[in-house]
Amino acid sequence: MLDILEIRKYLPHRYPFLMIDRVVELIEGESITAYKNVSINEEIFQGHFPHFPVFPGVLLIEAMAQACGVLGFKTANKTPEDGSIYLFAGIDGVRFKRQVVPGDRVYFECKVVSAKRGIWKFDCVAKVDGELVTSATIMCADRVVG
Question: Which of 103, 104, 113 is nearest to 133 (CA)?
């Protein structure tokens, strides 16, 4: 549904911190499904870990938050160019169930739980080949920048 050029309109992140490659489904105000292709060419694997490359869990959480940001921006019909940004406000119930390694395509599925006074709450999961990798409840704050 959204390719990387469209995603860049809704997220202020750029290389090397843009974690979403494509959005495959988005229902405004409800849910988003996006993915990231994990490549051995990513710089993070030079240090995490050179002889046993594992994609860091904190970056999986960041990717979930970025998917939530795209959903929030699309739902509110805003972009960062409008002077708005979604900031990571909190996380609850994080669980890591499986390692993510080069060659994996990680799907992020996030659903809106609530949106009140600019604070959005999402239930999120990450999966590889249909297998649960990570789950978390993420909160983002819609704020004016500048």
Answer: 104
Catalytic residue among 48, 78, 98, 111: 48
Name the β-bridge partners of 111: 31, 123
Residue 51: active-site member: no
Q: Which two tokens stand for residue 38?
A: 């994990």
How many domains would you assign to the chain?
1
Q: Return the SS3 of 141.
A: strand
Q: How far apart are CA 146 and CA 141, in angstroms?
A: 15
The position carrying tokens 């309109």 is 9
pTM of the predicted model as reported, rounded to 2 decimal places? 0.96
Q: b/e per residue, 17-29, with b = 16+ CB within 10 A?
A: ebbbbbbeebeee
pLDDT band at 146 (very low <50, low <70, confident <90, very high): confident
> What residues pair up with 85 in beta bridges, in sequence order?
143
Determine the average pLDDT of the residues in 9-16: 95
Residue 24 near residue 1, CB atoms below 8 Å: yes
Expressed as residue numbers, the domain containing 97 is 4-144
